[in-house]
Request: fold
Amino acid sequence: AYTYLYPLEGMKAAEFWVSPEMSAQSAAEAVSRGYTAVKFDPAGPYTIRGGHMPAMSDISRSVAFCKAIREAVGDRADLLFGTHGQFSTAGAIRMGQALEPYSPLWYEEPVPPDDLHSMTAVARAVRIPVAAGERLSTKAEFGAVLRAGAAEILQPALGRAGGIWEMKKIAAMAEVHNAQMAPHL
Reply:
């Protein structure tokens, strides 16, 4: 089971979201409660527009978060790196390759999720499995993602993807393509 990282009691939220050390403390605490993965998204600030090149400071901050969290949890938990579909293809590749030494379990929507060509390019260039699907709605969309090799971890949102019955169909397609499911609830 995974959890997002949140400030612990006594931590100031404004400081937490920019502090690798505080996030590492939160991650260690989550692991002590039995979580086996922690999700975080330090590459912001995020905007309503996607497809931009992350600044070197965004990459450096993201690497610092991954390093601190990995050191805090060791091999007791996986790292789940979210991006909210914010990067250009080149930017997503640049960011993903910088994160590879920390072995995240997934790289969530590194480019806008409706840009299948770009997501496929990122999946081929980065050694972190791409996760996607919270904004996809139909099994046809998930089928296209799988056929293109754009993501190895599907994240359909139960309500958006048509409920339990459709989610089971998406899971069957994922199994055929040797992909994993991590529903976005």
